[in-house]
Amino acid sequence: MEFSIKQCSPEKHVGSAKLKNGCVLVGVFDSGKLTDAAQILDKAAQHYISEIIARGDMTGKAASTLLLHNVPNIASDRVLLLGLGKRPELDARQYIDCMRAAMRALQGSNAKDAVLYLTDITVKGRDSAWCLSQAVIASYESQYRSDQLKSKADKSKQVLRKIQFGLLNEKPSAALETAVSEAVAIAQGMALAKDLGNLPGNVCTPTYLAKQAITLGKTHKTIKTTILDEKDMQKLGMGSLLSVTRGSAEPAKLITMEYHGADKKQKPVVLVGKGITFDSGGISLKPGAEMDEMKYDMCGAASVFGTIQAIAELGLKLNVVGIIPSCENMPSSTATKPGDIVTSMSGQTIEILNTDAEGRLILCDALTYAAKFQPDTIIDIATLTGACIIALGHVASGLFSNQDKLAHELLAAGEQTQDRAWHMPLWEDYQSQLDSNFADMQNIGGRAGGSITAACFLARFTKEYRWAHLDIAGTAWKSGKDKGATGRPVPLLTRYLINRVAASK
Ligand code: BES
Ligand code: MN
Ligand code: ZN
């Protein structure tokens, strides 16, 4: 998809024949009130549009659409009316719903290009730059298909190639241009995260992820990829990570992608992503229902891939290191057993009471390993606990941090991108749930506060850093008819990193 921003006054546009094969999109508010762009079109078309509205065929209900053909005096073949609901009620969430509906309608039409008039729409608490970036993301999302493994690619028509954002009374500003290019990078990062997430466990193995990281390193000369194998991990003393892979025939990998966008001396932000390519639960085997969805247990890793690709595309001026511990969690006669005690790279010992609480076991060694990069900040991203879904559903990711300032920066980035997180407690009071009679800690803390005790476990390995943990168990993918990875939290993470660069200027 190609995007551009242009000042184009619709009445001059009209009759210019520039938009042959195209579509002009304008908004209509509840009870048929026209936006500025819609009024201009209506006037040129001698009230063709307002007559249709008077007839009741377009009420302006939020996210409703009406595609018109051959509107008189309009050069464009099509006009798409987009319902926006009640003007004072139009908020971020509703606007995004409207954009999704608009993109669906555009894709459903046969238009090859489209001009969208969006800057005359006011969304509560958001500016025009935000409105354009959400349109970009919605357009990518509506085009996304996971058809890599279908014998015939989904040929359902995807003719829309160009989107132009039309400005009525202003020249394209640097702010709008930046918003669009950032949104494109984010949308492509989300698509990469979705692709990796949606691939099945027999394709997307730790070795496959390692290959993807090498490819990313070849595409961008700012990225340096390093892969450690099990022998290397053994030497580093990663007894906890290795205990998870023991039951699997697939070799584990520890993937590092170093993105250099700033001076070498600048301490990096380290992103650690859980990369369990299939989580059967191990000897503490999961029940059968929906077990296929545990191929998504590497979505934290996928979001690190997506974010690193996005910032490399943008050439962000900061240093970021992505670390991905990756393996399968499988049962076998060599698998770790409940009650086994292992020694982590940090030296702390862990009694594994449930082999299904494996995410924390691979993350803790990766978090210790991160010290090597002298991080300024560490953020881990993991589909860590079912308990997080019970707490927050599929709307917010769980956010835990040992520093409130960092937590608030991440929350703000989530609000900005509507990829939201919710701040959860990480109080000492919960730590005792991890006490073990036989080791320094046990790997589960009981049913109560399951997502919190998981975070408390990780906190024991990140004491020396400014650190945050995102539990994305509820937000990384959708189940049921719309089963598929969401690409979250690539928007949150990328926006956080962009904001960091802006704040340091
Ligand atoms: N990957 C799962 C968490 C998960 C479950 C994410 C369902 C999304 C949907 C994780 O490894 C796990 O199995 N966690 C256990 C922890 C428990 C044994 C303490 C869980 O949440 O049940
Ligand atoms: Mn598990
Ligand atoms: Zn898991």
Descriptors:
505 residues; alpha/beta; Leucine Aminopeptidase, subunit E, domain 1; Aminopeptidase; 9-stranded mixed sheet; 6-stranded mixed sheet; 20 strands; 35% helix; binds ligand BES; binds manganese (II) ion; binds zinc ion
**SS-derived structural category:** alpha/beta
The tally of beta strands, per DSSP, is 20
* Ligands bound, unique: ligand BES, manganese (II) ion, zinc ion
Percentage beta strand: 15-25%
- The proportion of residues forming helix, as a percent range, comes to 25-40%
Q: How many separate helices?
A: 15
The low-confidence runs, each spanning 5 or more residues with pLDDT under 50, are none
Q: Let me know the average pLDDT.
A: 96
Summed up:
The chain has 505 residues and is an alpha/beta fold. Helices cover 35% and strands 20% of the residues. The longest helix is centred in the middle third of the chain and has 25 residues, at 174-198.
